């Protein structure tokens, strides 16, 4: 696949691939964002609930402390208690009011009274006596001392006991009211151990499911430290997180999973669709490449495909030979049998060319009936050319038709760094030379062809300037009466005198036809000829017209406009045309002739007798005059049948009532024969060569003076031959 095609395919598929990649990226980004949002919401919900649970756990401990503190305060600030502990039997009163109820009181399970001297007055745990300092440890004395100094509010701390963890609230036993002036007071301490029952109660009251007391925190569980009076952790309340975010996520997970699944399915479908579309576009691009590089009827490469092939084999086969083949006579096949048969012939030739030689690299149809063959190397190509010509040696059979065509071949060799287009141009230039040489030939490219083309291009540029600058001027050749010898008309002939010398009309007139300058040249010549002819009243003016001009739909209008602007009598003008235009474009020629004949212009058929003009054509176009071709005049002396052919030709025109002019007369014998055969108008170097306008004027002046005419009369009276009046001496101003 060429880089150009690869670039075109990439241009087709890259947008789809880019769009698919962008779509996938956006889809994955959205999926990631959705996942991030869900996870963030889940974590946030969990964190919010965990924070709430921590606050609830702390609130549970605070509530427990508050209840115990209120219970101690209610019992310590009591006049009866103050009086009882100061009596002689404080232990009994303490047991009845505090020790005994500790067995089943929901607020505390231990009650201790410490006297002002630090001795234990009363100490009961669940209704039984116990040693508080052994139970609470050394820190208990510190709380008692602190409570003695802080009489207004109870002092509450957690203690690590022998059996677990207990909350102890201590306050001085005092009368209700003022405490000013009182002696050192006894201290009442209520204690509640954090038993499983207490923990369960806290769990129920504060919504902490699974709450339990542990000596250490547990990974993955929420916890809050239970600290002693020094702030050190002595235990932990541990409970599982409710993780409401997880619970919500578990509920919505099926929907999220379904949405992600649908999204992934959609992504897969989109990806597959993109892949299939990319492959389809590649196939379309390949098909488009085939269509763009191949000829549909024959299946061969077309011009574009051939040039691509030449580019691809540039390195693989640096030396190649290109054969361009044109079928001679193919147009006649189309005209005679139709395009269907023509297409079938093209296919037959295409298949034959592909197989005509084993070294052929590729075969192409460049258009119409033009083919190209490519072969490697620069070896002598006679074998290849013979193989090609051999294909056309025998007629082709299509159905019941026998069709014969030939071939012209142009060959170009690529041995240096030339482009494929240049190689094809050279081969085609060689082909054109082969067809110009007579067809059914082979011509190899020669650099001289380009130099010749350059010369033609320079000549064309010079011709264009010569027409615009008026350098091309008419010369006039006399037309004389066969009966009297008098000048009755003039034929205008184009003359181009350049700085390099005179250029023949046989060179620049065909060049003007090929380059599209013939209309401008013809209009210029007609205008200048009329300008000079106005100085010679009574003489007819003949001007040659190219078939290309006559086929121009605007030709009649152009001629009429020139006549009007020059104020020239149209009946004095005769336009000379050749037989070829009657065969190639009879309809357009007839329209132009009819339009101009309506304004009085006459038409003469030039070079009559050398072509294919039929009697029907002479009648159809109704020519005012025919001019016998100079080959019939020169043939008078070349063969015995020349006079007979000439007489028959003139007799044909005479029978149709068309006057005859003979041109190319070079000696008196030719002139006498033509006059005897019936020509009424004569032209040639014997009569007068083409002259400049001033030379024509001078000759007319002399003839009008009668000098030459009197000489002719005396010669006739003396019995001299009638031909003498046409002698060069009699027309000494030729």
Protein architecture, described:
The protein has 734 residues and is an alpha/beta fold. Helix content is 51%, strand content 19%. The strands form five sheets. It has an eight-stranded mixed beta barrel, surrounded by five helices. A six-stranded antiparallel β-sheet has the order 3-2-1-6-5-4, sandwiched between helices. The protein has a five-stranded mixed β-sheet with strand order 11-12-10-15-16, sandwiched between helices. Helix 1 (3-76) packs antiparallel against helix 7, helix 9 (330-337) packs antiparallel against helix 10 and helix 17 packs parallel to helix 19. The longest helix is centred in the N-terminal third of the chain and has 74 residues, at 3-76. The chain is rod-shaped and about 195 Å long. The two termini are 75 Å apart.
Please supply descriptive tags for the structure shown above.
single chain; 734 residues; alpha/beta; 8-stranded mixed beta barrel; 6-stranded antiparallel beta sheet; 25 strands; 51% helix; disordered C terminus
């Amino acid at each position: 696949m060429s880089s150009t095609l690869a670039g075109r395919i990439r241009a087709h598929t890259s947008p789809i691939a880019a769009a698919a990649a962008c779509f996938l990226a956006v889809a994955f980004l959205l999926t990631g964002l959705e996942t991030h949002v869900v996870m963030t919401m889940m974590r946030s919900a969990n964190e919010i609930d965990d924070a709430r649970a921590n606050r609830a756990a702390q609130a549970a401990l605070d509530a427990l402390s508050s209840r115990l503190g209120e219970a101690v305060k209610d019992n310590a600030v009591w006049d009866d208690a103050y009086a009882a502990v100061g009596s002689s039997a404080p232990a009994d009163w303490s047991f009845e009011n505090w020790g005994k109820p500790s067995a089943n009181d929901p607020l505390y399970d231990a009650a201790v009274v410490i006297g002002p001297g630090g001795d234990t007055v009363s100490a009961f745990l669940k209704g039984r006596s116990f040693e508080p300092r052994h139970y609470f440890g050394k820190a208990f004395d510190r709380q008692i001392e602190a409570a003695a100094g802080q009489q207004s509010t109870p002092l509450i701390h957690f203690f690590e006991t022998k059996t677990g963890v207990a909350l102890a609230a201590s306050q001085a036993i005092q009368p209700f009211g003022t405490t000013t002036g009182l002696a050192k007071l006894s201290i009442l301490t209520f204690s509640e151990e954090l038993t499983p029952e207490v923990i369960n109660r806290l769990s129920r009251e504060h919504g902490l499911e699974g709450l339990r007391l542990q000596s250490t925190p547990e990974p993955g569980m929420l916890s809050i430290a239970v600290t002693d009076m020094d702030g050190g952790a002595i235990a932990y309340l541990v409970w599982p997180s409710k993780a409401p975010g997880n619970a919500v996520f578990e509920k919505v997970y099926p929907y999220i999973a379904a949405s992600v699944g649908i999204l992934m399915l959609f992504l897969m479908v989109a990806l597959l669709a993109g892949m299939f579309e990319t492959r389809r576009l590649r196939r379309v691009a390949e098909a488009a490449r085939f269509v763009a590089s191949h000829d549909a009827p024959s299946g061969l490469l077309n011009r574009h495909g051939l040039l691509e092939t030449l580019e691809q084999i540039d390195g693989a086969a640096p030396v190649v030979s290109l054969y361009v083949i044109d079928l001679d006579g193919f147009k006649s096949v189309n005209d005679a049998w139709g395009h269907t048969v023509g297409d079938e012939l093209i296919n037959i030739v295409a298949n034959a060319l592909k197989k005509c030689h084993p070294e052929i690299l590729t075969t192409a149809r460049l258009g119409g009936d033009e083919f190209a063959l490519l072969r490697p190397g620069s070896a002598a190509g006679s074998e290849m050319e013979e193989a090609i010509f051999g294909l056309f040696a025998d007629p082709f059979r299509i159905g019941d038709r026998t069709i014969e065509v030939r071939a012209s071949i142009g060959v170009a060799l690529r041995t240096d760094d030339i482009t494929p287009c240049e190689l094809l141009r050279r081969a085609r230039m060689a082909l054109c030379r082969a067809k110009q040489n007579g067809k059914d030939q082979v011509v190899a490219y020669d650099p001289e062809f380009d130099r010749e083309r350059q010369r033609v291009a320079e000549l064309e540029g010079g011709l264009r300037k010569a027409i615009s600058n008026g350098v091309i001027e008419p010369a006039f050749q006399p037309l004389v009466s066969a009966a009297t010898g008098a000048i009755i008309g003039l034929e205008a002939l184009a003359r181009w005198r350049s700085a390099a010398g005179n250029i023949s009309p046989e060179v620049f007139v065909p060049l003007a036809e090929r380059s599209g300058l013939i209309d401008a040249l013809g209009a210029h010549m007609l205008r200048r000829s009329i300008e000079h002819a106005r100085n010679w009243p009574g003489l007819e003016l003949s001007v040659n017209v190219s078939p290309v001009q006559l086929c121009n739909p605007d030709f009649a209008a152009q001629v009429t406009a020139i006549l009007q602007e020059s104020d020239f009598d149209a009946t004095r003008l005769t336009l000379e045309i050749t037989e070829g235009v009657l065969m190639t474009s009879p309809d357009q020629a007839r329209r132009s002739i009819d339009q101009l004949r309506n304004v009085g212009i006459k038409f003469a058929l030039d070079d009559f007798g050398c072509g294919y003009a039929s009697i029907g054509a002479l009648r159809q176009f109704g020519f005012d005059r025919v001019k016998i071709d100079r080959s019939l005049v020169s043939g008078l002396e070349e063969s015995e049948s020349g006079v007979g052919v000439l007489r028959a030709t003139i007799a044909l025109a005479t029978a149709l009532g068309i006057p005859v002019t003979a041109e190319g007369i070079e000696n008196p014998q030719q002139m006498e024969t033509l006059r005897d055969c019936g020509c009424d108008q004569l032209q040639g170097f014997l009569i007068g060569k083409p002259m400049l306008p001033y030379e024509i004027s001078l000759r007319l002046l002399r003839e009008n003076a009668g000098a030459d005419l009197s000489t002719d009369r005396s010669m006739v009276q003396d019995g001299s031959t009638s031909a003498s009046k046409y002698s060069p001496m009699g027309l000494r101003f030729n």
